[in-house]
Every structure is written in C-alpha cells, then in structure tokens.
C-alpha cells in the first residue's frame, strides 16, 4: 500500500478529523526534544488520533496486513527521537486521548487513558489527598502513556522510585491487533505475583512491543510538609561524600540535586539576582513527610552536611524554599548562557553512574569538554547518580556539530566505563542503540527474541531501542 492509498484508507476508517495528511501538519511530528530530530527530521506518512481501543486495533490490523510501521507518540517531549518516524509509517498521536476513567481512592489507584498529562493527573489526585510520585521536569507537558513507555522519573526518584514502581496493570494493543491486559484481567489488587510480569516488560519498552491504551496505576498519600537545605562546597569530592553521610545518618531525602561550578555560573549569568555562591558544587536536599519528621530530618542534614560544606541553610518557609530551589529549577534553561551564540542541545544528557563515582565522572566530563573545545554544563539528580550534561554549541556550525557528536559518544562510553548506564531516565530511542550490546552483553540477544515474539514483522517503532 502506498502513502496516498494509506491516507485514504485511514480517513475512511477514522474520519478526517482524526487523521492528518498535510505535509505541514506532518512536519510537526518529525520532531521531539532530541538534537537528533533537529539534525535529521523526517515526516511520517500519516498521523492518527485514536480515541478507543477498537480504533487502535483497527489501525494496527491495517498496518500489520500492509507491512506499515507504527510509531506511538505522547506529547513528543522525549529526548531520544523515540516518537518520530524514521522511514515513513503511521504516527499514533495518543495525546488527545486523555480521560481519567476512574480514581479508585478506596483502593489507592487510578485508571486512565495514555494521553493524560502528568501534572493534570496529580491535580486531580490532590482532591483525594493522593499523588503519583514520579516527577519528570516535563510534568506540565508529558503524557502518562509516554512516562510508562519510557519508565520516566525525576528528581524525587531517590525516595519514590521510577514510574515502573507504580504501574499495576496495562492494556496493550499488539502489532497484529491483539489486545492484552497485564497485571490481571479483573485485578484491582496492589500486590500480585501471578504469572510472568508483562507489566514490567511493557514499562520502558519505548513503543517497540505494543501501544499502551490503558493504565492502572498506584497512588500514594500526599506528604503534608516539606523543607529544603542548600549546602555549598569548595571541594567537589565533598558533595557525593555528604550525600553518603546523610544516608548513613538514616535520612532518605525526597530529592538530592547537584549543580557543579559550570551550572552555578550558568544560573548566575541567566538570572544574576539569584546570586548563587561561587563554589565547586552546590547540593540541594528536599525532605518531605509529616511536619515533625521533616524538621528532624532537616536538622540532621544541616548538622551532617555542615561537617564538609562551607555553609548550609535549611528552611521550611515557603518563600525561602522557592528561592533556594530556583537556581536548580532554571538550570536547564540557563545552560545556554555560558556562551553568547550558544544553544543547549539534548544529546548525551542523561548518564547514570554509581554515587561513589559522581565526582570522578564530573571531572572526566570537564576534561572531555576541554578536549573537544565545547562548554558542558553539569547538574543532576546526585542522590541516585543521574548526571545531566548539557553541551552548549552553535548548531549552525557543521564542524562543531561533528565535534559535539564525538564528545557525546565519549560521554556515553565514560558512563559504561564508570559502571553506569548511558541513560538513567530518557531511554535509548534512536540515539543510544549502539551502546546496548556493550551494556547488556548476551542479555541483548534475549531482548531481541522478546521483541520478535511481540512484533514478528518488526513494525512497532522500528529503529528504536532494538
Ligand atoms: C524539559 C524536559 C524535561 C524533561 N525531564 C525529564 C525528567 O526529569 N525525567 C524523565 O524521565 N524524562 C524527562 N524528560 C523526557 C520526557 O519528557 C519523558 O521521557 C516523558 O516520559 C515522555 O513523555 P511524552 O508523552 O512526551 O512521550 P513521547 O516523547 O511522545 O514518547 C516517548 C516514547 O514513548 C513511546 N510512547 C509514547 N506513548 C506511548 C504509548 N501510549 N504506548 C506505547 N509507547 C508510547 C514513544 O514511541 C517514544 O518511544 C524531559 C523532557 C523535557 C523536554
């Protein structure tokens, strides 16, 4: 079936309001937030916006019978080219299918369709004093379906973990149109060890095994209080050492973030009134829970961090907490300021290393930046070793683009060498496939067999992850 015949068939099947075929509309879908799609944007053949499992099934059967690629897409905030068509095919835009079907507060869970925006879900759950803890920086934009497909997390993963820990069951439409329900057909339970755990398999599968059309997820009670501590260090090694000291003092903060000297400089250039202290590193600790425990843990952090830090400030006052946190919340945007004609690119941005190797990793990234003559801004979720690196370049300069791609490659290799991973949050997508074998060895071959079992024709999101 050629492109034009496919477009006609889709319009006949779904009606013209749910199908986009205009090249200008399709161009919008050739991008996500990755640098890759800025370098090599590619339009799909058609975009469809299904609003029922049956519609997804029909589309999948049509694609299966005619060997057409299927690319699921949420809000397109991914950093890996995961939701774009590399060689034509149908993009399934699930972002408008955004019903919260049921907040089952008495069973501490919620059932929803994939297009619900993360922040919107938490706004609705707050009415029941509940929340869905994973908290990506893209919370106001990204869909819960995209979070499940990417096993997203964020700065509170250190205490609350990643999306996978909350997913109780999924409805998934497979490449041949079959619909499966994982986690028990009728189940509303929280604990369930029956059968192979296909829910876990689907979480983080980046759209290569099937389309997630319904999500049953667990919610937690909302903490009543929070507090923030900022600690300033003259010696980089003292930052990870302090994180360990805090853990060993029996405190598990809900967030532990680092800004190294490059990030401190970027923030101060972007918004001088924040006036972060010049230092080798700043740590921000967030503690949440009930008011007495928050106050107690804050005092422990103050005392423990004070042994290595130049100074530590602790606050539970709303205005001051916002001020202390502001530098961290604008770091990603501020990064570009370290160079006048610079743009921050999302490539090699998400490595994960053991806590004990964070300082060495940051030093090695600085050395790589010097080697390639590229400024790199470093920050991240130090509590679980997830380092965000932000190369700042002039993307209009092809020679510089080539240089930064070498730098990014070396950053990925560095992560593996440091006993870490090339990605702690954002996934493999189209940009990190070449490292999979290095990271997984023989297990990689079994992953490929699993892919074949679900998608024998290789039509689900080809060119991604596997
Ligand atoms: C400013 C910014 C901050 C970010 N911060 C974080 C962060 O802190 N933590 C983090 O983990 N990520 C972060 N991200 C990355 C991204 O937001 C997350 O990975 C998010 O979960 C992607 O959701 P999405 O709806 O945009 O998915 P998309 O980008 O549309 O898709 C991502 C992947 O999921 C697949 N997919 C989407 N929906 C489905 C579905 N229903 N069924 C099957 N497959 C599907 C796609 O095929 C693709 O492979 C950030 C991105 C930006 C732009």
Question: Short description, anyone?
Answer:
The protein is α+β, with helices and mostly antiparallel strands.
Please render the helix and strand layout as text.
Blueprint: H1 3-14, E1 19-20, H2 23-28, H3 35-39, E2 46-48, H4 53-65, E3 70-73, E4 90-93, E5 100-104, E6 109-112, H5 118-126, E7 130-131, H6 144-150, H7 157-160, E8 167-173, E9 179-182, H8 198-202, E10 211-218, E11 220-221, E12 225-233, H9 238-248, E13 255-260, H10 261-270, E14 281-289, H11 291-306, E15 311-315, H12 318-329, H13 331-334, E16 343-344, E17 351-352, H14 358-372, E18 375-381, E19 386-393, H15 398-417, H16 436-440, H17 442-454
Parallel strand pairs: 2-4, 3-4
Antiparallel strand pairs: 1-2, 5-6, 6-10, 7-11, 8-9, 8-10, 12-14, 12-15, 13-14, 13-18, 16-19, 17-19, 18-19
Helix pairs in contact: 9-11, 14-15
The chain binds flavin-adenine dinucleotide.
The overall pLDDT average reads 97
The outline comes out as: globular
For CATH, the homologous superfamily of the largest domain is named as FAD-linked oxidases, C-terminal domain
Q: What is the annotated CATH architecture of the largest domain? A: 3-Layer(aba) Sandwich
Distance between the termini: 25 Å
Largest sheet: 8 strands, antiparallel
Tell me the quaternary state: single chain
Q: How many structural domains in the coordinates?
A: 3
Strand content: 15-25%
Mind telling me the C-alpha Rg?
Answer: 23 Å
Name every ligand kind in the structure.
flavin-adenine dinucleotide
Count of helical stretches? 17
Number of strands: 19
Give the fraction of residues assigned to helices: 25-40%
SS-based structural class?
Answer: alpha+beta
Report the CATH topology name of the largest domain. Answer: Vanillyl-alcohol Oxidase, Chain A, domain 3
Low-confidence stretches: none
């Amino acid at each position: 079936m050629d492109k034009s015949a496919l477009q006609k068939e889709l319009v006949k099947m779904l009606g013209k309001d749910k199908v986009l075929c205009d090249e200008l509309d399709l161009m919008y879908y050739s991008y996500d937030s990755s640098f890759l799609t800025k370098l090599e944007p590619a339009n799909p053949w058609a975009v469809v916006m299904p609003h029922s499992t049956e519609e997804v099934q029909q589309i999948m059967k049509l694609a299966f019978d005619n060997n057409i690629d299927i690319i699921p897409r949420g809000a397109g905030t991914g950093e890996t080219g995961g939701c774009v068509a590399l060689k034509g095919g149908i993009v399934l835009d699930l972002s408008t299918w955004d019903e919260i079907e049921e907040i089952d507060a008495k069973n501490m869970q919620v059932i929803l369709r994939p297009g619900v925006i993360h922040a919107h879900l938490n706004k609705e759950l707050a009415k029941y004093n509940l929340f869905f803890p994973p908290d990506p920086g893209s919370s106001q934009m990204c869909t819960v379906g995209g979070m499940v497909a990417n096993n997203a997390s964020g700065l509170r993963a250190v205490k609350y973990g990643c999306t996978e820990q909350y997913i109780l069951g999924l409805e998934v439409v497979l490449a041949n149109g079959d619909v499966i329900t994982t986690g028990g057909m009728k189940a509303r339970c929280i604990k369930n060890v029956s059968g192979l755990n296909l829910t876990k398999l689907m979480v983080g599968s980046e759209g290569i095994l099937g389309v997630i059309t319904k999500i049953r997820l667990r919610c937690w009670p909302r903490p009543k209080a929070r507090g923030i501590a900022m600690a300033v260090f003259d010696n980089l090694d003292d930052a990870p050492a302090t994180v360990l000291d805090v853990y060993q003092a029996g405190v598990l903060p809900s967030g532990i973030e680092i800004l190294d000297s490059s990030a401190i400089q970027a923030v101060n250039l972007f918004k001088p009134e924040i006036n972060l202290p010049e230092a080798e590193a700043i740590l921000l600790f967030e503690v949440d829970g009930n008011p007495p425990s928050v106050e107690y843990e804050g005092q422990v952090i103050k005392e423990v961090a004070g042994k290595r830090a130049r100074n530590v400030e602790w606050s539970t006052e709303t205005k001051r907490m916002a001020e202390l946190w502001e530098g961290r919340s604008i770091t990603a945007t501020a990064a570009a300021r370290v160079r006048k004609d610079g743009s921050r690119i999302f490539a090699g941005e998400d490595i994960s290393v053991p806590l004990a190797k964070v300082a060495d990793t940051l030093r090695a990234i600085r050395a790589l930046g010097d080697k390639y003559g590229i400024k790199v801004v470093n920050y991240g979720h130090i509590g679980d070793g997830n380092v965000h690196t932000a190369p700042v370049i002039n993307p209009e300069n092809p020679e510089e683009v080539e240089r930064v791609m070498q730098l990014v490659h070396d950053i990925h290799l560095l992560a593996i060498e440091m006993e870490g991973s090339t990605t702690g949050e954002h996934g493999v997508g189209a940009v990190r496939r070449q490292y999979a074998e290095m990271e997984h060895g023989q297990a990689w071959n079994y992953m490929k067999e699993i892919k074949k079992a679900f998608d024998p024709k290789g039509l689900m999101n080809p060119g991604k992850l596997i």
